[in-house]
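<context>
A single protein, sequence plus fold
<entry> Chain with its tokenised backbone below
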Amino acid sequence: MKERVLLVDDEPPILRSLARLLAFEPYALVVASTGKEALELLDQAATAVILSDYHMAGMGGAELLRAARLRSPDTSRILFSGHIDVELIRSAVNAGEVYRFLTKPWNDDELLLAVRHGVERCQLMRHNRLLNQRSEEQNGQLKRFNAELELMVASRTEALELRNRALTLSQEVLDGLPVAVIGVAPDGQVALANDMARRIFPGLLPGESANASLPEPFWAWSAGAFKEGSSLMVHGPLGPMRFEIMSLGDRGLVMTAIPLDQSEESPSGEHPHLGSPRLPP
């Protein structure tokens, strides 16, 4: 789309001269003979440059450009006048109301260059505004993402803390049992061992191989205990105990050791023995 350039002057011959000068430029030209008409045109469509005479009946050029700045901040505002007023120029430029000031009669090349630079300035202002808008949107999205991430981390942390407390409680419950409990993973590693199990087998540590941590008779017996459904009676450092195996399928197995009173020991043959397993003293 062609950039829009608004020409304002209350003298028709001046407007025609400006229109002829800019006719071969790639702009969409619109003209106004009063400040009020110029503001109405400014409200109708985006305008890259407004070029206004200073001395006009009714609303003057400086007042017009001041109002134009409020309505369309990105529009480049050019003021021209047949009378050079240094104080006027200084005050208008310092207030940011005027982008360029040209004298009348103007130099054609100077006026064309001023309009071209005004269009480029407007385009740059729009581009910067768009980048700022996108940056604000991205920052907003980033803030929302960080907030959501913090909530997720907090929720995950809370869940992990609950799980750790549950695991700690489970271990405390296991350690408080009057029964030795040993969990063995499918790969043969010790998954858990409660306090009594560690007292019976001091070298039994989670993560270690059960085959290396348990005496050979126990490991040999446990391999066939699933099919036989048998238990093993032994005398160890904690007195007589009965070892049993419970299969967890593809999750491994659990070995339990139940302390027995001397009176509870079964006659030989009721509980299969693998010789006399040696337990740590």
